[in-house]
Write a structure and sequence with these properties.
Layout lengths: L6 E3 L4 E4 L11 E4 L2 H10 L1 H8 L5 E12 L6 E8 L4 E2 L11 E10 H6 L1 H11 L14 H10 L1 H6 L27 H7 L12 E10 L2 H6 L7 E8 L2 H14 L15 E2 L3 H36 L8 E6 L1 E10 L2 E10 L1 E3 L10 H4 L5 E3 L7 E6 L3 H5 L2 E3 L8 H7 L5 H7 L3 E4 L4 H4 L8 H10 L3 E14 L1
Helix pairs in contact: 4-10, 5-10, 7-9, 9-10
Length: 478
């Protein structure tokens, strides 16, 4: 099959989508993928979504998509777009419903053998300590005053109350807090939904995994992150802002509904960033992002507590490698056409990847760049990568956020109907605890792209290269 009309192959796993792929494009778009991936994106409509992002006014550079591109709400998942911070816009469809859905990884002194010997015990304790599933909640209800502090302070609020280590904040993107947060812009309904969900995993593709180091590709960089040996265990946590973030998105889409006719489609409704509506969404979205960082911090404390009790060690033996957001819009400075510009960068299913020497990185990470966490599917592998120097000019310092789906959840359930998935996981040597009735089918490896290929494209496109390959041992899911 040939390339779609108005699409041309460039170098380094790159395809350019010219103006004319859809009517009204104001700039070109670019996809980092293989020809097979491009064909899939054309067929599932995500390439059209990317082209429609290129129809939005005030864009800077190209609209971008990463190798895990697939169909989403508004932006395709795997989409990146930047707009001028002064004269540009902000779009909730460029962030999504799960604001600051993100992932963090912790190093441990454990080995794969340690986990396998006590896998059922550890899985049961984690499944109890970290509530998961649709609407999961905890008995701990935050009062309105404390909840507003969470929305201002993010992960710091948790750490100051004993739920973390002193080094955790430096290992979080943006220090685990966005200063633009405005709790006053968050509705009472969103606040109510967030009162008892701190420390919960949620459902869908959110997970808590214990993984083994399967391969080290760069011993020097891995050692900076606390990873030195094959079979060393890493903890990975993937979740977001839960019901509070979802409600912020709902509220904003409703408030901007009258502007839908101005957008390429109603899922890409937007507000000028400098307008009252734009400032309100930025403030509420940033507050929800801070809630998500606090949520992952609380889960981290629960995980450290379980592992410390089971293996007789203290929390300090489980340091945070890094925490990255992959559904967010952030104010950042980038060089464009030879000059520095302040931009609002939307990353929807995309991971920030700032390279070595970037001034926003803490001193510990500045020599090699921030760790990039790229989870795969629950049965195959995940990766830790390090950004390549060309990532800033190629993608506004962004790279893939995961394997990316090839089947919708409903399609996966239909395809796997009748298979004994519990037995399959046991035969793989994987210990799994889950909440949802259809979770094992929805999150089956066959529903996802080949994560190894996604990583190869990220490297070939000049975005990031692999440092560590991780394979799952124990999975907790909603």
């Amino acid at each position: 099959m040939g390339l779609p009309r108005n699409v041309s192959r460039m170098r380094d796993y790159s395809y350019r989508v010219e103006e004319g792929y859809v009517p009204g494009m104001r700039r070109t778009a670019r996809v980092f993928t293989t020809e097979q991936g491009l064909t899939k994106a054309h067929e599932d409509g995500s390439l059209r979504q990317l082209a429609e992002v290129a129809c939005l006014p005030g864009g800077v550079g190209e609209a971008l998509a990463l190798p895990d591109i697939h169909h989403g709400y508004g932006f395709p998942i795997g989409g990146v777009a930047a707009f001028d911070a002064g004269a540009g816009l902000i779009s909730p469809g460029g962030v999504g419903y799960d604001i600051n859905c993100g992932v963090r990884a912790l190093a441990t002194p454990l080995t794969a053998r340690d986990v396998r010997e006590r896998a059922d015990e550890v899985a049961d304790l984690l499944f109890t300590a970290v509530p998961c599933g649709v609407g999961a909640s905890t008995p701990r209800q935050l009062g309105r005053r404390d909840l507003r502090k969470v929305l201002y302070q993010g992960a710091r609020w948790m750490i100051e109350r004993g739920h973390g280590l002193s080094g955790d904040l430096a290992a979080c993107e943006s220090g685990g807090v966005l200063d633009e947060a405005d709790p006053e812009a968050v509705s009472d309904k969103a606040l109510q939904r967030g009162r008892n969900q701190l420390g919960t995993l949620g459902s869908g593709n959110h997970f808590l995994e214990l993984q083994r180091v399967a391969a080290l590709y760069d011993d020097e960089v891995a050692a900076v992150w606390g990873l030195t040996e094959v079979d060393q265990v890493v903890v990975m946590i993937h979740c977001g802002s839960r019901g509070l973030g979802h409600q912020v998105c709902q509220d904003t889409l409703k408030r901007l509904g009258a502007k839908a006719a101005e957008a390429p489609n109603r899922q890409l409704v937007y507000a000028e960033l400098a307008s009252p509506a734009g400032r309100a969404y930025l403030g509420a979205m940033s507050a929800a992002a801070n809630y998500a960082w606090a949520n992952r911090q609380r889960i981290t404390a629960a995980v450290r507590g379980v592992l410390s009790r089971v293996y007789g060690s203290g929390d300090a033996r489980f340091p945070l490698i890094y925490d990255v957001a992959h559904n967010i819009a952030k104010l950042e400075e980038h060089e464009v056409d030879g000059r520095r510009r302040r931009l609002i960068v939307h990353r929807k299913g995309a991971t920030r990847a700032f390279p070595a020497g970037h001034p926003e990185l803490p001193r510990r990470l500045r020599e090699h760049g921030q760790p990039v966490i790229l989870p795969g599917d629950m049965g195959t592998a995940s990766y830790l990568l390090t950004p390549l120097p060309t990532v800033m000019e190629r993608s506004f310092g962004s790279t893939g956020h995961g394997a990316g789906r090839v089947l919708s959840r409903k399609a996966a359930v239909r395809r796997l109907k009748g298979r004994d998935l519990r037995r399959e996981w046991r035969e793989r040597g994987l210990t799994v605890r889950w909440e949802g009735r259809t979770t094992l089918a929805e999150e089956h490896p066959s529903a996802y792209k080949d994560v190894d290929e996604v990583v190869r494209v990220c490297e070939g496109a000049g975005l990031a290269r692999p440092v560590v390959r991780l394979e799952p041992l124990l999975v907790v899911k909603g």
